[in-house]
Amino acid sequence: MAKNIQAIRGMNDYLPKDTALWQRIEGTLKKVLDGYGYSEIRLPIVEQTPLFKRAIGEVTDVVEKEMYTFDDRNGDSLTLRPEGTAGCVRAGIEHGLLYNQEQRLWYIGPMFRYERPQKGRYRQFHQLGAEVFGLHGPDIDAELILLTARWWKALGIAEHVKLELNSIGSLEARANYRNALVGFLEQHVDVLDEDCKRRMYRNPLRVLDSKNPEVQALLNDAPRLSEYLDEASCAHFTGLCELLAQAGIPYTINECLVRGLDYYNRTVFEWVTTSLGAQGTVCAGGRYDSLVEQLGGRAVPAVGFAMGLERLVLLVQALNPDFTAPPTIDVYLISSGAGAQSAAMQLAERVRDALPQLKLMTNYGGGNFKKQITRADKWGACVALILGENEVAAQQVVVKDLRSGEQETLAQSETAARLAQMLS
Ligand code: ATP
Ligand code: MG
């Protein structure tokens, strides 16, 4: 027998038992974005490889080892997008959306990274991201954080995510700090693992991010980025912290928070949880004031974040049972006997015309009355509509309340009105 072809490792199918929860969560997220005046942008999944190399940075995990890159039939190097910001900026420049304008945008969709699959880490995963262009003050950074905080409340997980903040300053301040940090690391090479040694000259700030406990201990004595911050970045950060405090959003300043992508400056933040094991970052972002220029546009300040939807879904699943109730229908339409199936289809369409919000499922594939009632229960219907030969001949229908067991016979023309009453 031929071997079954299976999905690619780390790339998941999302089955009907899961998609109801996904839709509920996505609906909640989109409603909040809409309420803040953010608009959706839809972008291609494939972009030219140099876009990501330039935007994310050559010496990052993503570009060094996680990208799905291939040559197309013309020999052009293309990459499945590992994140959404680069494509968003590319599109913004290409369509003249950015210069001298304000944009509040969001996107949702699959991202691709060649990582070791585990809980909360996949090779195809989904992000919802927001990007704001044209605003430089800390107030808009704060708004993005308030918006995400509103999400956690709406999803019932607010108690389980904590905000971590840092400022990584200007490019110049970071260059100064970089020299100091390399100087320090050079005196302690013996403690560094291979990864850190490799990063020490190419991208030393990433050493701060190391998960190695010995390196973390060493870093307690390292020079601090906060001591090298430029004045303007300090003022921006103080402004942000004040706005958050005034808005009642608790946060922790984490001086080791540097983010894995090179385009950030000033504000960086993460929402983290301890409820997901090692994959604790649910939502991460920051300011990237030089990216637009770096990608060929005229300089425009920008700030944004991306949220991993799989991690969010895992959290909601674990913490908020209200969201995970399986989807049900309202009404199940049962029919049996000559001409009944066709009459049932017509009745169903008439009811749908009158009650577009109603969830009505029609029985197909026959089955006796008892079997069809069992199916109605399985789908969680509260009402069954029943059409037998007699009802069809008399243009009537039996309406059965599946909770109380009571039933009545009505003219078919009264069905919608009666259902509206019963289900209100
Ligand atoms: P991590 O430190 O977990 O690798 P990252 O710094 O690579 O995260 P970003 O590139 O900032 O993450 O992406 C933002 C969010 O997208 C992450 O916080 C996470 O929720 C989610 N994410 C990133 N990579 C994956 C993945 N491979 N599978 C599932 N979700 C992911
Ligand atoms: Mg990563």
UniProtKB/TrEMBL annotation:
PROSITE patterns: AA_TRNA_LIGASE_II. HAMAP family: His_tRNA_synth. CDD domains: HisRS-like_core, HisRS_anticodon. The lineage of its organism: Bacteria, Pseudomonadati, Pseudomonadota, Gammaproteobacteria, Enterobacterales. GO terms for molecular function: ATP binding; histidine-tRNA ligase activity. It is found in: Cytoplasm. The keyword Glycosyltransferase does not apply. InterPro entries: aa-tRNA-synth_II, aa-tRNA-synth_II/BPL/LPL, Anticodon-bd, Anticodon-bd_dom_sf, His-tRNA-ligase, HisRS-like_core, HisRS/HisZ, HisRS_anticodon. It catalyses: tRNA(His) + L-histidine + ATP = L-histidyl-tRNA(His) + AMP + diphosphate + H(+). Its EC number is 6.1.1.21. Its main location: cytoplasm. L-histidine binds at E83, G84, T85, R113, Q127, E131, R259, Y263, Y264. Belongs to the class-II aminoacyl-tRNA synthetase family. The gene is hisS. It comes from Serratia symbiotica str. Tucson. GO terms for cellular component: cytoplasm. This is Histidine--tRNA ligase.
